[in-house]
Amino acid sequence: MIPRTVPTWQTKSWQEELSDLIQDPAILLERLQLGPEWLKPALDASIHFPLRATESYVSRIRPGDPQDPLLLQILPLAEELKPAPDYQKDPLEEARFTPVPGLVHKYQSRVLLVAATQCAINCRYCFRRHFPYEEHQLSRPEWLAALDYIRRAPEINEVILSGGDPLSLSDKQLGWLVENIGNIPHIKRLRIHSRYPIILPSRITPELLKAIHHPRLKTVMVMHCNHAQEIDGNVHDAVKAMRGADILVLNQAVLLKKINDNSRILATLSESLFDAGVLPYYLHLLDKVQGAAHFAVAEDRARELYGELLTLLPGFLVPKLVRETPDEGSKTPIPPL
Ligand code: SF4
Questions:
Q1: Going by CA atoms, what residue is nearest to atom 1 of ligand 1?
Q2: Most buried residue, 17, 136, 257, 277, by CB count within 10 Å?
Q3: What is the rounded CA–CA span in Å between residue 315 and residue 81?
């Protein structure tokens, strides 16, 4: 575990940190002591998908190392602009599964609410990097229409808050939403997909935990961490607080070239997650989104890594290797080689 330090930014509240994101490539490069040759590609690529990162996350990047696995997840690169024929703007064809604005209903028993239209970080491989969030910024009547859709569909027993990142909403907004979801009798579980426990762990406050609590719902937090270097003492504290609030904490990771495409790195990730109190859940093959082809790991290589991982870890620490395809009724498990 990386030891905890208390630099100046850590004295800020999460709201202050959120309004103080690093969005200028020149500032990021200066902060990380990287040369000017990275600036033009970063500026060009960020026109299409801007740079966004928290100070907290950037503090875990090794200065002077352009290959740092955390840096590669946030730094806009020239490779993003190279055409890649199989890569689409909406690789999962979510538009097809959107019966009302802000709601994706793809799997029978679960429905996904695009609860927030922003993240506190822009991961360069994000499959929603071209998502038309402006069309999904919901007014109160649209929220009510989405809730009404869920109310009328008794086969749905789980609501997933996703985004953007749902923890970008205020506690008040989340509290309203969770209360309304909890008032639908056939909903049993609330799942929250968020990268905040990693990129801004101070977001996990007692007020937030109170806002997302509903006495009738089981709550699951699926956080998103791709490399053990992302886990520090503050992440441990955030997970401990969530577990203390009776929240099951799982992790999903994406298999990413040059970042975690190595079985030792993946094994260390699982071990570090478990040390923090988190169970590995999914290891996703990259969704083929335009601008992210340079992160792709070939399927055979992924299967080989998965086979190696099975020998390195006890079964409960091995995440399921999966691919998501638009026409499947669930994620597709990928077998080891
Ligand atoms: S946190 Fe998730 S939704 Fe947000 S940019 Fe990263 S991958 Fe995309």
A1: 195
A2: 136
A3: 39
- 337 residues of the chain, pLDDT tens digit each: 444 544 444 568 899 999 999 999 999 999 999 999 999 999 999 998 999 999 999 999 999 999 999 999 999 999 999 989 889 887 767 777 889 988 999 888 999 999 898 899 999 999 888 777 666 678 889 999 999 999 999 999 999 999 789 999 999 999 999 999 999 999 999 999 999 999 999 999 999 999 999 999 999 999 999 999 999 999 999 999 999 999 999 999 999 999 999 999 999 999 999 999 999 999 999 999 999 999 999 999 999 999 999 999 999 999 999 998 877 777 899 999 8
- Of 49, 119, 196, 222, the one to substitute when testing ligand 1's pocket (max ligand atoms within 8 A of C-beta) is 119
Residue type (1 letter), 12:
K
Asked whether 51 and 23 are in contact (CB, 8 A), the reply is yes
Q: Do 75 and 186 fall into the same domain? A: no
- Which range marks the domain in which residue 75 is found? 8-81
Q: Are residues 104 and 240 in the same domain?
A: yes
* 88 found inside a domain: no
Pair (272, 314) in one structural domain: yes
The owner of tokens 């009328």 is: 152
Amino acid at 16: E
Looking at the DSSP bridge assignments, the partners of residue 315 are: none
Residue 58 sits in the same domain as residue 167: no
Residue whose CA is closest, atom 7 of ligand 1?
126
Among protein residues, the one whose CA lies closest to atom 8 of ligand 1: 126
In this structure, the dihedral spanned by the alpha carbons of residues 29, 253, 146 and 210, taken in order and rounded to 10 degrees, is: -80
Is the domain of 151 the same as that of 263?
A: yes
In CATH, what number is assigned to the domain containing residue 149?
3.20.20.70
